[in-house]
Automatic annotation (TrEMBL), chain A:
This is Two-component response regulator ARR9-like. Belongs to the ARR family. Type-A subfamily. Functions as a response regulator involved in His-to-Asp phosphorelay signal transduction system. Phosphorylation of the Asp residue in the receiver domain activates the ability of the protein to promote the transcription of target genes. Type-A response regulators seem to act as negative regulators of the cytokinin signaling. The keyword Cell membrane does not apply. The lineage of its organism: Eukaryota, Viridiplantae, Streptophyta, Embryophyta, Tracheophyta. Residues 11-147 form the Response regulatory domain. InterPro entries: ARR-like (IPR045279), CheY-like_superfamily (IPR011006), Sig_transdc_resp-reg_receiver (IPR001789). Residues 150-227 are annotated as: Disordered. It comes from Nicotiana tabacum (Common tobacco). The modification 4-aspartylphosphate is found at D80.
Automatic annotation (TrEMBL), chain B:
Residues 38-143 form the HPt domain. Its main location: cytoplasm. The modification Phosphohistidine is found at H79. This is Histidine-containing phosphotransfer protein. InterPro entries: AHP1-5/YPD1, HPT_dom_sf, Sig_transdc_His_kin_Hpt_dom. GO terms for cellular component: cytoplasm; cytosol; nucleus. PANTHER family: HISTIDINE-CONTAINING PHOSPHOTRANSFER PROTEIN 1 (PTHR28242:SF5), PHOSPHORELAY INTERMEDIATE PROTEIN YPD1 (PTHR28242). One of its GO terms (molecular function) is protein histidine kinase binding. Histidine-containing phosphotransfer domain (HPt) contains an active histidine that mediates the phosphotransfer. It comes from Nicotiana tabacum (Common tobacco). It is found in: Cytoplasm, Cytosol; Nucleus. The keyword Nucleus applies. Keywords: Cytokinin signaling pathway, Cytoplasm, Nucleus, Phosphoprotein, Two-component regulatory system. Functions as a two-component phosphorelay mediators between cytokinin sensor histidine kinases and response regulators (B-type ARRs). Plays an important role in propagating cytokinin signal transduction.
Length: 227, 151
């Protein structure tokens, strides 16, 4: 754990109303050398991010946004779906509607295997949908998503290079996934993950394209220049 | 008892808990997440599970004792219990939650009460088993041995 250099460490924001599950998620990501912040509700997650409600009403934010830039760099948000008050889906929507935060990958977890719910989350831009309890093998799959957030920071002026870097692994993955069987009513975990991956990829590609438009990425850069 | 013997009985006991379905692979995950930096992780999480379950079983008992049962609330409690039991790998408790939720949907108070009785019984069983397991661990550590890794 201690071998990873500080600048390579990913910071994960974990959102779950269950204390047991917060403990579990925290440990899972710590074991994977990530820094973890846990909160027990969606509204606390937004508070931690420094989210302003009116954010998405400004399609062209000024170059240096005084209020609504990402104060702490978060490389991944992992949230429970079923929570009192704001659900994980509500949180996902708020994040993806926000010009400042939409580039943060969001992963939804749920103990219930409801295909329509899974699809809804993936359509809204979630990177993955995990069935609970989350395993180390699930967490290991998230590294590439977190890497993307770091890549963007490093290759900021060369957007095309970044795009190629991000897209190439997906193109390789697509053919194998298209041959996967379509889900029936009873889905096991593996099948669910296959659907997630194939659908997640479509969404990923969409989100990458969106990420390329300058006005949407600017807040992130402006926060970087202050370093 | 000497360390080797304690370690053997630990392995035997652990295996019986898996074989009899009290615990599932999720419990092994918890054990994998425990290391020198977090030596009490399993005990901590399982203690939270005990607290959570006892609170929920109490709430369920009260909710089903009302003249007009709020089945939505009952279902919410069972949902939480299912979540925490599956997070620690208390498989038999978790398995009781599925039929519980379906009789709850049918608004069948009698069947709900039977499910509650069964889930209480399973909870007490697994709690007992886990406590015995932790005591065995402590004995091994006290005798200067290492906890055997199950694989």
């Amino acid at each position: 754990m201690g071998m990873v250099a500080a600048e390579q460490q990913f910071h994960v924001l974990a959102v779950d109303d269950s204390l047991i599950d917060r403990k579990l998620i925290e440990r899972l990501f710590r074991t994977s050398a990530c820094q973890v912040t846990t909160v027990d509700s969606g509204s606390k997650a937004l508070e931690f991010l420094g989210f302003q409600e009116n954010d998405h009403n400004h399609p062209n934010p000024p170059c240096v946004s005084p209020h609504n830039h990402q104060e702490v760099e978060i490389n991944l948000i992992i949230t429970d779906y079923c929570m009192p008050g704001m659900t994980g889906y509500d949180l996902l929507k708020k994040i993806k509607e926000s010009s400042s935060f939409r580039n943060i990958p969001v992963v939804i977890m749920s103990s219930e295997n409801v295909p329509s719910r899974i699809n809804r989350c993936l359509e809204e831009g979630a990177e993955e949908f995990f069935l609970k309890p989350v395993r180390l093998s699930d967490v290991n799959k998230l590294k590439p998503h977190m890497m993307k957030t770091k890549c963007k920071s490093f290759h900021e002026p060369e957007k095309i290079v970044t795009k190629e870097n991000q897209e190439s692994p997906e193109i390789e993955k697509v053919p194998s996934e298209q041959s996967q069987p379509q889900p029936k009513t009873e889905l096991d975990t593996e099948q669910i993950q296959q659907i997630q991956q194939s659908q997640g990829n479509n969404n990923k590609r969409k989100s990458i394209e969106e990420g390329l438009s300058p006005e949407r990425t600017r807040p992130r850069y402006s926060s970087l220049t202050t370093v | 008892m000497e360390v080797g013997q304690l370690q053997r009985s630990f392995i035997e006991y652990m295996s019986s808990l898996f074989n009899e379905g009290f615990l599932d692979a999720q419990f092994s995950q918890l054990q994998q997440l425990q290391d020198e930096s977090n030596p009490d992780f399993v005990v901590e999480v399982v203690s939270l599970f005990f607290e959570d379950s006892e609170r929920l079983l109490n709430d369920l008992t009260m909710a089903l004792d009302q003249p007009n049962v709020d089945f939505k609330q009952v279902d919410a409690h069972v949902h939480q219990l299912k979540g925490s039991s599956s997070s620690v790998g208390a498989q038999r408790v978790k398995n009781c939650c599925v039929p519980f939720r379906s009789v709850c949907e049918e608004k069948n108070t009698e069947a709900c009460l039977r499910c509650l009785q069964q889930i209480k019984q399973e909870y007490l069983l697994v709690k007992n088993k886990l406590q015995t397991l932790f005591e065995l661990e402590q004995q091994i550590v006290a005798a200067g041995g290492a906890i055997p890794m199950m694989q």
